[in-house]
Amino acid sequence: MRILYHHRTRGRDVEGVHIRGVVNGLRELGHEVTVMSFPGADPEHEPVAQQGHVRPGRLAGMVTRLPGVLFEFLELAYNPITLLRMSMAIRRRQPQLIYERYSLFLCATVWLARRRRIPLILEINDSALVERVRPLRLKGLARRIEAWCMRNCTGLVFISSYFKQQAEDAYGAIAPSVISPNAADLARFDPARFDAERLRAERGLTGRVVCGHIGAFAHWHGMDAFVEAIAERIAEVPQLALVLVGDGRTLPAIRALVAERGLAGRVLLPGRVAHDDIAAWIACMDYAVLPDSNQYGSPMKLFEFMAMGVAMVAPDYAPIAEVVSDGQTGWLFPRRQTEVCVQRVLDLAMQADQRQRVGAAARSYIIRERQWRNNAEQLLTLLPQGASL
């Protein structure tokens, strides 16, 4: 089947991983997929040696720095551009399905697909209904457009049941939908690819029990509170080392705390690494920790850790609890209870059998249910009966 994948994001970092995952999953099933990106974005061409902050395309970078209300007016103004670009793409490609990563204020694709009688599936990773880092100024308009899109597309792919419930409560009858959390690329996240002992030796981790984390150091991720809390108790478990990979606003404060407490030999902070290098860092770890998340998101790193056979201590938000079975494929703690999280991390440092058993079960779960091919198969169930597959 000919599929046109459209998105209006920069296609970097986790966004790019998700876009490539869905596209490659559809191609693995034998479909022909063309990606239509925001000008300057190209999620299919992942930088292979990317270090430090990624520089976005010039246009995308300029737009995202605009004041809130002006940024939202430009998002609205992108609709006629989308109409023109998608009309041309439809004439060239003759798609049998349009798949769009939903963006606020964008309705042109849904309108065009209805007019051309082409099935369109919307993937919902964002919504005007959830609390945002960048507050919405035109919230009422955004919600009206969103409601219209969700009612007039062919189908909806939600990354969590929380998103779906919020949409149904706010908008009533919406298009048929599926819940499709994130997934992992098993070819990339395969522990058999790595010599874990050699990697540990190179990073000064020989003989340590390693608890790891990879992600943005944003305050809402809770890493600053976690490090402050575990710094008080890490001496209780001499063999434990923390490897916390990533960067962000709270990293300087965490570095300062680690230095002040004399924990540089126990807490490794390598900074940001390329996505190509993430699996090699996970290969050094015995288990992982996610101190905090949010009630609607599906953390990409959770799936990548599980694929590597590294289970995670994570908060019990619904999107995580939908994936992690406590004590079976990971360990859940009551959200926002940092002390409970720290205690679980300390306990597991002395429970090698449990770490190995749960890690193996986590990988088995990903193999069975959460490869990108599984997501592709799931979204295609939303097509009308008799559609060409």
Topology:
Layout: E1 2-7, H1 13-28, E2 32-36, H2 58-64, H3 68-93, E3 97-101, H4 108-116, E4 120-124, H5 139-152, E5 155-158, H6 161-171, E6 177-179, H7 196-202, E7 209-214, H8 223-231, E8 240-245, H9 251-260, E9 267-271, H10 275-282, E10 287-289, H11 300-307, E11 312-315, H12 318-321, E12 331-333, H13 338-348, H14 352-369, H15 372-380
Parallel strand pairs: 1-2, 1-3, 3-4, 4-5, 5-6, 7-8, 7-10, 8-9, 10-11, 11-12
Helix pairs in contact: 1-15, 8-9, 8-13, 11-14
Describe it:
The chain is α/β, with parallel strands linked by helices. It has two domains: 2-183 and 372-380, Glycogen Phosphorylase B (Rossmann fold, 3-Layer(aba) Sandwich); 191-369, Rossmann fold (3-Layer(aba) Sandwich), CATH 3.40.50. The protein has 15 helices and twelve strands. The protein has helices at 13-28, 58-64, 68-93, 108-116, 139-152, 161-171, 196-202, 223-231, 251-260, 275-282, 300-307, 318-321, 338-348, 352-369, 372-380, and strands at 2-7, 32-36, 97-101, 120-124, 155-158, 177-179, 209-214, 240-245, 267-271, 287-289, 312-315, 331-333. The strands form two sheets. A six-stranded parallel β-sheet has the order 2-1-3-4-5-6, with helices on both faces. Strands 9-8-7-10-11-12 form a six-stranded parallel β-sheet, sandwiched between helices. Helix 5 (139-152) links the parallel strand 4 (120-124) and strand 5. The protein starts with a strand and ends in a 9-residue tail after the last helix. Mean pLDDT is 93; it is low at 48-56.
